[in-house]
Fold this sequence. Notes:
Layout: H1 4-50, H2 67-75, E1 89-92, E2 95-104, E3 117-126, E4 133-139, E5 146-154, E6 162-171, E7 178-185, E8 197-204, E9 223-228, H3 237-249, E10 254-258, H4 264-270, H5 275-278, E11 281-285, H6 293-313, E12 325-330, E13 333-337, H7 343-350, E14 358-361, E15 363-367, H8 382-385, E16 388-390, E17 399-403, E18 420-423, E19 428-434, H9 451-454, E20 459-461, H10 469-473, H11 476-483, H12 485-488
Parallel strand pairs: 2-8, 9-10, 9-12, 10-11, 14-18, 15-19
Antiparallel strand pairs: 1-2, 2-3, 3-6, 4-5, 4-7, 5-6, 7-8, 12-17, 13-19, 14-17, 15-16, 16-20
Amino acid sequence: MKNPRNSSGKMRKYYQLILVIVCFISIVTLLIYRHEYYRLRYVLEVLNFFGKPGLSEIEFCGPGFNATMLSEILRNSSMEVRETPPLFQEIDENFYSYSSFLRSYQKYENLAQEHAHNIDTIVIGKAHVRPNFRCNIWLENSAKPRSGRFVFKIISEPVNDFRLYIFQCSLNKNLGKPKGVSFYMNDYNINPIHAPINRIIQVNTKRKARERSSIRFVNNVEPAICVIPNQVPLVSRDAFIEFLVYHHMMGVNAFTIYDSMISEDIIRRLNLLPADITQWSIQFFPLNYPFVFAKSYDIVRSAIELDCLFRHFRFDKDESNKASHALVLSWDEFLVPRVHNNIKAIIDDFDPTRKLRSIEVKPLLFCLNQADDDNAEIGYPDIMKKTHYYALPQPMKSVYVRNLDSMAAFSDIFSLNSTMKIVPLDILGVHKYTECRDPKLYHPGGVGYNETQMQVFQHKFEGAMLKFGQSLVSNKIYRLYTSGQIWEKASSENVRDML
Length: 499
């Protein structure tokens, strides 16, 4: 007969054993949780200071952060932003920084102790206010910044009370690798730790000369285009594809796009195309202009051009995919040769020794609300059907092709007009395709001049674009677009099956 006292004792031991096991598991779980908590906290602290790789600090913390900027970051996360994007950040109510670049006289790892750090920051500010700031340089593996020496350069003339500046911050010793720069008012009552931080991009101060072939300048021209929004910052899917395909036909393989209004669906579908079909490289950057766009368009364009040149200058000359020339165009602007068939051939003839720092290209205005040319083929895009350019009262800005190969030192970027020549219109022109309307009148429906009103304005025939019509519509990428198949295919389906 079993003793009930012994049975209860055994049960009590089992309960104790279970409690010990549960307690042990709880302690282990708590330790794991505590360890993961501190790891996550450390990661968040690093992100708050240095930012996510490829994105600037202002996107995560600091003054200037807002919901619009956050939506741009999230929306552009699928756009394959491979570099630190430029973002306007408020320094104070009169000045906004854009992007920052660290100048090194050689590879950073080979810098001598006495070499100074020089950081150039592109800034847009009010023309009537003199900059009066101090600066800090944030170093890698250091929680405290170093105070730098602040100077500034005026880069442009006033445009609607805006002016383009370069804010320079420097250290006279190599105290570590710089990761960021911040500017704050020259007021000791202001805590500089609260100033927004610009993540810096390393560039080379000097570049090797491009090696030339024994054959006269063979494959020596590699143009790159930086694209900005139109003055009305919306672009249709048609215009987006036409611009890229056309200029790719002109010999451009590198595109840097500064625009937040591009449909994400367009980007996603474009990424479906294999690289051996497109043979181009496209980089997207958001554009979070903090001004009234119509009033600040020209100065923002100048800031983007400077950022474009800084980024292309930083590539080593011995890289195979470096750009030799760079220019800025909006979506409604097209480089149209008259005699040649691509940009390389034009530069070969117009600047055979590659001595010109800048080539000025004059613009021509083509109104989209003019009647179609009777000789244009059915199925051609609108840019092929509009063959008269008009002399309207709206001011037209020239486009400049900048020769990076003529810039032996980084400081040469600040003297872009040292050697400049205008290319004749019978060789090359910039065709601007837009709705023509009276700028003094408000049209809620966006209606421009009617056909009768258009006849009043002086206009002239120019059919240079027509000769590229057949090449454009027969292009593989353009045919995929116009067929509609690329917009219907799932991302998992092979695009090659559509060719």
